[in-house]
Amino acid sequence: MTHRQSKRLGRVGGIGLLLLAAVAWADLPASAVATSAPDQGKPRVEGALLVDVTQVKPGDTFRAGVRFRLDPGWHIYWKNPGDSGLETEVAWDTPGSTVGPLKWPFPDTFRTSDGFITTYGYDDVAILVADVKASEGATAGALTLSAAVEALVCEVHCIPAELMLTRSIPVGPETLRDAETAAVFDAEVAKVPRPLADSGHTVSVALDAPNLTAGQAFTGALTLTGPGGAAVPAVEGDFFIAERIPGVANLGLTAEGPGRFKVKGKAEPDVQATAPRLTGVLRLGTAATGYQYLEVTAPLAPMVAAVGAAGTPAVVKPPSVKDSIAAVKPVGTAAVAAPAQESSVGLGLALVFAFFGGALLNLMPCVFPVLALKAYGFTRMVQQEQGRVAAHAGAYAGGIIATMLLLAGGVLAVRAGGASVGWGFQFQEPLFVAGVCAVLVAFALNLFGVFNVGLDGTALAGKVDQSHGLMHSAGEGVLAVVLATPCSAPLLGTAVGFAFAAGPATVLAVFTALGLGLALPFCLLVLVPGLAKKLPKPGAWMERFKQVLGFALLATTVWLVWVMGGLAGVDGMARLLAFLVAVGLVTWLYGQGQAQDGVRKLATVAVAAGVLVASGLLTLRFEEQGPSAVARTGSTMALAQPWDDAAVQTALAAGQPVFIDFTADWCLTCKFNERTVLSTDEVRDAFIQHRVAFFVADWTRRDARITAKLAEHGRAGVPMYLVLSPGAPDKPEVLSELLTTGLVSDAVKRAAECAPSKLGGSNVLCAAGFPSH
Amino acid sequence: MKHVVTALALGTLFVGAPAFADAEVGKPAPSFTVKDESGKEHSLAQYKGRVVVLEWTNPECPFVQRHYKSDTMVTTLKGFDAKKVVWLAVDSTAHNTPEKSAAWKKEEGFPYPVLQDASGTLGKSYGAKTTPHMYVIDEKGVVRYAGAIDDDPRGKNAKPSNHVKTAVDAVIGGQTVPASTTTPYGCTVKYKT
User: Fold this and answer.
1) Regarding predicted confidence, which is higher, A725 or A368?
2) Where is the protein situated, by its record's location annotation (chain A) (predicted)?
């Protein structure tokens, strides 16, 4: 029964004190005892240097211990003092002998009465024992042991204590033990936690996540098995005390059953290069059964960075254009500071890129509804004379190019205002999204035959629109451009990025080339004789097909409604849907009016216009949301954290490769890549294997930081995929805009292997794997 | 009896720090409006646009006394651009009074206010545990550093590395703070109980 247990049983005056007092230590020299921590003239601590021998033979081992006696209510600190305090320190000076590490008995836990501050240490009496080995050559009469002790002694207030303790031990032909002191040391050493390897216990830790995320809490389970699979006894209060673990705070265990514990902790905001280990001391058993003390250590998990790791936190509210003006230099020629190699394309090449990029847009899912419509229109027209087809193709191309120029004008205007914009920027504006939705719904209802477009007001609903006016074709061109922008095709990013950073003339030229590319398929129909004849013959199927296309357009609005959800939340979605219902009502009224004539017709159209304006005013008030926690699909996406440059730097500094996914909800190419490539098990395993810090830069809403980052790499839109290596942090690799699993895995593997040599990578591979930009 | 209740409340199987909201690095700093020793109010919001250094202090604590004897805080503050950085001391000691702070300020001759938090509300909202315990809050009101003033708990190092200086310089320079948390050392904050 030690004094510590007796104290737990609530006996005042501690048997331990009596036990220690009973040991005479008559020969304790004055130099081996000191008092310190003077408090109003009274010392609060007494230190004494004890040894368990009276004579030592050279080469033999004995024990020395610093005994602390503290006034009631005062305590000193363990090697991890906890929330405050200071580790007790013993500096030995032992010529002729060597001293091993201090053996720390399992400490007491002290809490302030409000439970706010927890510290670990010793009160009453504590002895810190160490093994001492007298050297073979110790012959000169006596060994001198000196201990310079520093301790912080606290009750409510704290007093630093400094003790200088010294004594000499006679050297003789044999070692003579001091049984009394040895017994006291034995009792104290019995409370020193033993390493698991010595006690035969096994421990395993299983966390609930593959990584510790910087700044975030983590949970898991710890299982402890006794020697030979034996059961582990139950525990009682304050049974586990963690050591200081770099990168982890507040690590604690909760007992769930014999040998089963819940692990709870919090990762610090700075990423550690090496995976933190759970280290601490464990006290098994209860006061009634007696205790067993163990030293536990087990790996936790690698650490990955998180947003705001010592950096700018996620923007709580997207900056308005005005803020962006203040925050970001205009993306002018000068602003592209360190462009990636693609930016060095010349104007000619940029135009070629733009043209092909525009042509490629036709293969993107965004444009499909319009393409189908156009194809449908053409199948009807090819039966007529070629000239009419040419006129319509021209009108369509004209609509496309006019819209492109309008976009270019918009870019220039915004840029002149000093803000930075990017390809697809218009989708960051809720009103624009609402407008496009309205057009799509109206278009769909037109295809269903609710009303007719054009001046042919006598045409009845459902009757084929023979005129299919040129304006209609031009309108389809406009719609094609509007819908195409979210699909930034390969090559396109480069061309547009080039344009965005160039002069006004270049912007206009590039956008024109882009428009021509987009219009290409239909221009080909016109320009290549006989090609148009290959289209299917028109017939009754076309009416049905037209209506099916209406559903394709409605499906497109579903996607845009989802985009609106990202921009303006659930309320925004509801407002938009209400507006779309109103649009439906307006088109129906308009269709009714078309069947009438004169005043009635005018009245109906006026009512329709009134409904449109009123509903628009009522519903189109979108409050931009902060970044919503859009549920990212797929296992890999669960590893993702919001992009933040500081967090990226932290991860790189910690030797982790970094993968950044620049994306937006309205960017279909991005979503396609995320679902088909980034979410695969292969990519996830590669990320976990190479400890990749995976960041998502979400550009759904305006974010000047992301716009600037895109511009830095010569891009004007998403998607953009960057892979950074800790070995070459200034040389990011820009992946292609259409990902494959192999491409991603190889890139992160290269980045991981190119770690700085001190982290176990080889610099040789960097040169090969990372093109110098 | 009360102790029994406390013991039960702490739970025989409960280990770990109680869940108080703390000032977390990377998150917005808890806002406050507190009077200083002269009765003047200070709020975090009024210092938006400047870097704010919070120093938990207690003139009775030997660690604080050591730093004031060697002018650690004042020297650190002098190294910053006064237009960009605000230094606020906070005393959450339960028995502290404005008069005590004023007398100590006069004696030591430092320029910054000592916020009076005898109730401990501000201290606990930040999770301040020791004196000194330092926090650096950036221009946007986000905590960028929390921990010790330097890497020299025992005051024995001839050239200690000043964590607060490193952090503030990094924040002003738009850099990442190299070590955004360190373990604070010092006396326990003497909260009202």
Assistant:
1) A725
2) Membrane
Q: Do residue A84 and residue A68 come from a single domain?
A: yes
CATH of the domain at A292: 2.60.40
The token pair that represents A29 in the structure block: 């020299």
> Is A309 inside any structural domain?
no
Are A244 and B186 in contact (CB < 8 Å)? no
CATH of the domain at A655: 3.40.30.10
How close A319 gets to chain B, by Cα (Å)?
13
Give the range with max mean pLDDT: A94-103, A306-315, A452-461, A533-542: A94-103
The strand ranges marked E within A644-750 are 658-663, 693-698, 720-725, 728-735
Interface of A with B in 340-399 (CB under 8 A): none
Spatial distance between the Cα atoms of B185 and B133, rounded to a whole number of angstroms: 7
- Burial of residue A24 (CB within 10 Å: 0-12, 13-18, 19+) is exposed
Across the interface, whether the CB atoms of A312 and B61 are under 8 A apart is answered: no
Residues A457 and A501 both lie in one domain? yes
Tell me the nearest-neighbour CA distance from B154 into chain A, angstroms: 8
Residues A609 and A685 in one domain: no
Is A321 part of a structural domain of the chain? no
pLDDT 10s digits, A141-153: 889 999 999 999 9
Which residues form the domain of A689? 637-768
Nearest to B25 among A150, A310, A312 (CB): A310
Q: How many domains does chain A have?
A: 4
Distances (CA, A) of B10 to A116, B14, B16, B120, B190: 12, 6, 10, 21, 20
pLDDT band at A667 (very low <50, low <70, confident <90, very high): confident
- pLDDT digit string, tens, across residues A438-481: 878 887 888 788 876 543 333 332 333 444 567 777 777 887 77
- Residue-wise pLDDT for A379-438, tens only, equals 666 665 556 677 777 888 888 888 888 877 877 776 665 445 555 666 677 887 888 788
Q: Identify the CA nearest to A734 among candidates A676, A707, A773, A694.
A: A773
What does the alpha-carbon distance between residue A693 and residue A674 come to, in Å, rounded to a whole number? 16
Domains and CATH numbers, chain B: 27-188 (3.40.30.10)
A368-381 vs A386-416: helix crossing angle, rounded to 10: 150
